[in-house]
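Thread title: Can someone regenerate the structure for this chain?

I was given the following input by a collaborator and told the matching structure tokens would be attached. They weren't. Posting the sequence so someone can regenerate them.
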Amino acid sequence: MGHHAIVTGAGSGAGEAIALSLAARGARVTAIGRRAAPLEALAEANDRIVAMPADVTNREELDAAIARAIERNGAPTIVVANAGSAESAPFLRTDVDLFRSTLDVNLTGVFNTFQAGFSKMNQTQPGRLIAIASTAGLKGYGYVSAYCAAKHGVVGLVRSLAQELARTGVTVNAICPGFTETPMLWRSIDNIVEKTGRSREEAEASLRNVNPQGRFIQPDEIAETVVWLCSDAAASVTGQAISLSGGET
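Best answer:
Regenerated them for you:
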């Protein structure tokens, strides 16, 4: 592949799968995340991956990490904004701090990642900006109004930026997975069990059955969609919000 890819939220789940899939295709990967230990373990297991701990909500910290990555791997050609978090609460119990922190990670974090990465790209050459959004960016779900607002914002950012960059070599897309088998999903299930008294099996089934195929999305499915978007075959695909949801949206 011969690319330098920056992947945020790379310490686990979809981000880890994306980093590994891009490295397997020959890319040099900068793995960014808040927790150093899982990033370092990932880098130790794959010599094409470099760990760069940073918080995407802290622009100064993120810029410094990307600058160090460029010193080692050159200008980025692929930027994948995957870092995110989700907390649920009824609307009237969603205080302004929860709302702001949700937007900070899930929307401002994508803005920071795209702007910091794109500013260092060779904009006359092919490049890829990819946001890992959610089906929550395409429809509404109860009890996660802040998360839905943030992910809808990501889709809007992607569509706007794709228009702005259409005459460059850089495409901009969002991938919108349904419920995905990651640590964030297990935390959501724990939350349902705690707040509703349902069994873990019932909580899992309630989320699994949102997908018409009756299953959870796998991180590798997201990673392989990223790989395809980075290929020459996807050069004309831009401004899209690609649903990976078993037909949910």
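The chain has one domain: 4-178+218-244.
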